[in-house]
Amino acid sequence: MAGYNHLISGLYAITDAHLMPEPVFLARAEAALRGGACILQYRDKGDVVTDARRRRMQAGALRELCAQYDALFVVNDDPRLARAVGAPALHVGAEDASPAALRAQFGRAILIGVSCYGSVPQAQEAAARGADYVAFGSFFASPSKPQAPVVSVDVLTAARAMIDLPMVAIGGITEANGGALIAAGADALAVISGVFAAEDVEGAARRFTALFSNRKE
């Protein structure tokens, strides 16, 4: 999406239904935005039929909240929901709809991100098929996806030399290890537990955001 690639930078917070139950869902999301999250992804693995009303309401509320904080709102793996709430961005996995198919469906009206795990060739293919950014990981053991294979940080360095797209790092990222990923080439750090499992969500988001302050442009 023209003009949007520059937004893939900084803290990329991802929602979690278990860490953000309905009574505090929006409050915790807003706390992350107050703390400096530049991107907020709505990730909900509930049933798309039985949970459709709740998902639509939550996604719509997050869309409005992100607009208030000038943050990019992303829907995870649900093109229909993204269209319904007017999301400016959609993130998919390698096994989901291809960037080319999504681009044919949405045109340039939406930014498309693709998970490429530890594969630079997969990221190159995603870029060729219309992705606007690529994500790599899991870089560390992740409480959200404990079975995910751990990827070497070197993949960021290799990808940076071959792909001219923003890169997102994900998986077990903490305030202690995030700086190394930024140094290796990550434009954004995608974080779930590191932000939303914290007692002070806003404070955690601020600490992650601070990791980018010394990044060399």
Q: Which features would summarize this protein structure in a list?
A:
alpha/beta, 9 helices, single chain, 8 strands, globular, eight-stranded parallel barrel, 217 residues, TIM Barrel, disordered N terminus
What this model shows, in words?
This protein is α/β, with parallel strands linked by helices. It has one domain: TIM Barrel (Alpha-Beta Barrel). The protein has 9 helices and 8 strands. It has an 8-stranded parallel beta barrel with strand order 1-2-3-4-5-6-7-8, surrounded by 8 helices. β3, α3 and β4 form a beta-alpha-beta unit. The longest helix is centred in the N-terminal third of the chain and has 17 residues. The two termini are 22 Å apart. The N terminus is likely disordered.
CATH topology: TIM Barrel
Tell me the overall shape. globular
CATH level-1 class: Alpha Beta
Number of helices: 9
Please state the second-level CATH architecture: Alpha-Beta Barrel
Query: Ends: how far apart?
Result: 22 Å
Strand line-up in the sheet with most strands: 1-2-3-4-5-6-7-8
State the gist of this model.
This protein is α/β, with parallel strands linked by helices and 217 residues long.
Topology:
Layout: E1 10-14, H1 25-34, E2 39-42, H2 52-68, E3 72-76, H3 79-85, E4 89-92, H4 99-106, E5 111-117, H5 120-128, E6 133-136, H6 154-162, E7 167-170, H7 178-184, E8 188-191, H8 193-196, H9 201-210
Parallel strand pairs: 1-2, 1-8, 2-3, 3-4, 4-5, 5-6, 6-7, 7-8
